[in-house]
Write a structure and sequence with these properties.
By secondary structure, the chain is mainly β. It contains 2 helices and 12 strands.
Length: 223
């Protein structure tokens, strides 16, 4: 009898959710999510002539340096508009307090940037929408902004002309990923997703930066 009771309990929980999922989903939604932000390190050549004077406490222009990010949390907000049952467009904003530092030999810069802001516009494609579990894939473009301490701090560590390259850094950002909604009520759902934000490294650092964002949150849906 115990397996039968479990089956009946599961059916009583899932049946109302399935009925909700069969209806056409609301056209508009807003969401709020939180999670983690994981950026890969970068490298580059400091601007300036090779062999320029430097000190044990300052970086040497014309020489290689590496940069690294701390792992951090992420806040993620936005909204979607469906133009068909399975297709939507999305506008979003996210913030993560990743700290970026540079290293050259034994010289460390301390924190150059201490936050990353992202504004993105995405296309969203739901794989199916007639069950409580509704997976989706997404891709889009936006702007990534690395910002940090006041410029006066940078002058203490980086001699000119290196210091002139270090300020708030804006980069074009591409993102892609996927996730799933769990529809609990017609106007309420849970969301889980993973995205990769691909952008350039800030300042004089070269190569692509991959920001893996694993988030979860709530969705309010309305017409």
């Amino acid at each position: 009898m115990r397996p039968l009771r479990i089956f009946l309990l599961a059916t009583s929980i899932l049946a109302p959710l399935s009925a909700v999922a069969q209806d056409d989903p609301p056209r508009f939604e807003i969401f709020a999510e939180g999670g983690g932000s994981f950026l890969n390190q970068g490298s580059g050549i400091l601007p300036g002539p090779t062999g320029a004077p430097c000190t044990p406490t300052q970086f040497c222009p014309g020489s290689p340096a590496t940069g690294s990010y701390t792992k951090s949390g992420r806040l993620f907000f936005g909204g979607r508009v469906r133009f068909t049952r399975r297709n939507a467009i999305e506008a979003s904003y996210s913030y993560s307090p990743n700290r970026f530092t540079a290293q050259q030999g034994t010289v460390s810069s301390g924190t150059i940037y201490n936050r990353v802001d992202l504004i993105s516009f995405n296309y969203v494609r739901y794989l199916w929408t007639r069950t409580p579990l509704q997976p989706f894939a997404t891709a889009g473009l936006g702007i990534s902004r690395f910002s940090g301490p006041r410029f006066a701090y940078v002058l203490l560590v980086f001699p000119p002309p290196v210091s002139s390259y270090i300020n708030n850094s804006n980069q074009l950002a591409f993102n892609y990923g996927g996730g799933a909604d769990i529809v609990l009520r017609r106007h309420f759902a849970l969301r889980f997703e993973l995205r990769d934000y691909v952008t350039g490294q800030p300042s004089f650092f070269t190569g692509a930066s991959h920001d893996l964002a694993l988030t979860a949150g709530i969705v309010f849906r309305f017409k």
